[in-house]
Amino acid sequence: xxxxxxxxxxxxxxxxxxxxxxxxxxxxxxxxxxxxxxxxxxxxxxxxxxxxxxxxxxxxxxxxxxxxxxxxxxxxxxxxxxxxxxxxxxxxxxxxxxxxxxxxxxxxxxxxxxxxxxxxxxxxxxxxxxxxxxxxxxxxxxxxxxxxxxxxxxxxxxxxxxxxxxxxxxxxxxxxxxxxxxxxxxxxxxxxxxxxxxxxxxxxxxxxxxxxxxxxxxxxxxxxxxxxxxxxxxxxxxxxxxxxxxxxxxxxxxxxxxxxxxxxxxxxxxxxxxxxxxxxxxxxxxxxxxxxxxxxxxxxxxxxxxxxxxxxxxxxxxxxxxxxxxxxxxxxxxxxxxxxxxxxxxxxxxxxxxxxxxxxxxxxxxxxxxxxxxxxxxxxxxxxxxxxxxxxxxxxxxxxxxxxxxxxxxxxxxxxxxxxxxxxxxxxxxxxxxxxxxxxxxxxxxxxxxxxxxxxxxxxxxxxxxxxxxxxxxxxxxxxxxxxxxxxxxxxxxxxxxxxxxxxxxxxxxxxxxxxxxxxxxxxxxxxxxxxxxxxxxxxxxxxxxxxxxxxxxxxxxxxxxxxxxxxxxxxxxxxxxxxxxxxxx
Length: 586
Known about the structure:
The structure is a single chain. It is built from two helices and 54 strands. By secondary structure, it is mainly β. Strands 40, 41, 42, 43, 46, 47, 48, 49, 52, 53 and 54 form an eleven-stranded antiparallel sheet that branches. A nine-stranded mixed sheet has the order 32-39-37-34-35-36-33-31-38. It has a five-stranded mixed sheet with strand order 5-12-11-7-8, with no helix packed on it. The termini are far apart.
């Protein structure tokens, strides 16, 4: 028998014999997909021959694979638009599938095997435990006992009911799993029209956040087994349909529409119509009302306050008079100093200890006031880092952007110099030495591509409004490693943009020191964190600390953070790592 060699070409296909009597089959394997247009005929008995008509079949019967459901078919011949096959003796009705050199196609219609049991339709390809699934076809035995059905890896035969020669119903058993449905009629295994049946778990709603909303507000409902969004899916607040923003298996984000029939001040049960079922719940969402109609204490932009300070809060629809109006902060009585329809000034009570997110509430006679306001209260001197700053020390929280151990820290703002090709030079590193993270600036030959780029006056900072007082910030530097590059990092406080740095090597200073806050003694509120070379190994147990102090005579909005220049002029580059900042009220 002559040897066969297969050669792929881009155009016409043909077969020939070379001088060594070796048959060469040239295949048309351009990028055109395999296409099945029809079956001729679309039915036949075991042993019958039929043709698959289509396109781009490649002319090679030795390479074409054809199956009828779970049975392989013998290929008798193949051209670029026709494949001749033979129905095997144990085949049953199914779709035709072909494959060639990694490409696949499936017929839209079933090939009907005559004289054999067949299943031509299944009521659906998913279900819950206990659901009844209906199968229709022909020659389905002489009685219900002739039928055996197994769902996935189930070892329990499904209960069969409503049997006839052309249909029956199978109940999904308790141990059913997602996978192939196996159907046996007498002793004949019978194909079904799809490869996998999905066993779903019933959906559940577990929580809602926030649990009080105005018209137009976003809220998120969490749960399990909610499926994917499809036509007919709905999240209902009482009888009102919410506007869907996103839908996933475990959460739905939605909006209360502006024009709705919900009643202000009422709570409504949440329910969901998924692609598979209706899920009711005992979780309630309170509809506060329209922003234009409800008395509201809005979120205070000055989140850091001191005891005894008078703080103005924005509001909506408050009375013009303070008569009968009372306030509490963290459930402690607070004095209402003044009030207008759009604002109220409250004196922070003498709370004994520092409090984060102390709730601010207002009581107005004859009306309910919805409060979005909370404050971080400085009641005593000492460490107030978690009141004044966000995510400022280890363990650090991160958001998306994980790459080679580098991440994006939550709560920080970055200037344009911290980006290259629109990608942030990620300033948070997790590694074996610092599994809880370390903030920093890098320019290394051995790090990923972005961190091979130099950083010139990159800035990482937070904006915060602070009350009058004296403060101290201490930086815990874990590494300041100059390796034939330029390394300068300044920690500072300013009312405007933090200044740039001038210098080279490790000799840097602010380009405009006056841009930093000026203290009463004339000093500037900044400190260089790169005044000495510190290798990481030397500081794992012994921190290298730098501090700066500043004084505020009035409430001031400040930028607090670092300006850095990190380059690689030779050697391996530079690195700066910070374990955290400690913020103190003096």
